[in-house]
Amino acid sequence: MALLRLIMVAALFSTSIFAHAETQPYHVNAGDILIVYVWNEKDLSQEVLVRPDGTISIPLAGQVQAGGLTVPEVEKNLIGALTKYMKDVPSVTVMIKQTAGYSIYVIGKVNKPGQFPINQPTDVMQALAMAGGLNPFAAENSINILRRDKSGEQKAIRFRYSDVKAGENLSNNVLLQSGDIVVVP
């Protein structure tokens, strides 16, 4: 019976994660490495690092905003910047080579606190597993996820570990965003 319940909980986790992943495109972060390809323009095609301010530099285009945008939005920005200097509208393709800037943090009473780079949708339970689980002194029903919104204001999202562990209140097991901090008191 316990095994069946565990399998059902795992199925619900994976279903909700993949459903959310389909509706939430990846947003480029500072530290990510992008490959920019401008068709028929070898000198403009290159690998670029997204700087801490969220911009990338491409010859002719100059500094272009990439951080916080989806790949199609970055392509659109590059096309706009390059069109000023090219006779024809350029064909631009952007690919993500490395998602080094997409990290979450788990601190407090876990077995391996730290920064965890992630490259797929990750929920709170998965983050706690990456941190080696809760230690025996953790206040499992007082966990908070600290998240900053686009304006920079931080908010706390309450997480009750025991509910999710028991297969209850699974909507509480939110998907984490880059920069989120899971605090385990």
Write the SSE topology.
Layout: H1 2-23, E1 33-38, E2 46-49, E3 55-58, E4 62-65, H2 71-83, E5 92-98, E6 103-108, E7 114-117, H3 124-130, E8 143-148, E9 154-159, H4 161-165, E10 181-184
Parallel strand pairs: 6-10
Antiparallel strand pairs: 1-2, 1-5, 3-4, 6-7, 8-9, 8-10
Structure at a glance:
This protein has helices at about 1-25, 70-85, 125-130, 160-165; strands at about 35-40, 45-50, 55-60, 60-65, 90-100, 105-110, 115, 145-150, 155-160, 180-185. A hairpin with a 5-residue loop joins β6 and β7.
Backbone structural class: alpha+beta
In one word, what is the shape? elongated
Total strand count, please?
Answer: 10
When the domains are counted, the total is: 2
Task: Tell me the series of helices and strands, N- to C-terminal.
Answer: HEEEEHEEEHEEHE
Quick check: average pLDDT?
Answer: 87
Query: What is the terminal separation in angstroms?
Result: 32 Å
User: What is the fourth-level CATH superfamily of the largest domain?
Assistant: Outer membrane lipoprotein wza domain like
CATH class category of the largest domain:
Alpha Beta
Query: What's the number of helices?
Result: 4
CATH architecture of the largest domain: Roll
Helix share of residues?
A: 25-40%
Strand content: 25-35%
Radius of gyration of CA atoms, rounded to a whole number? 20 Å
- Unreliable sequence segments: 1-22
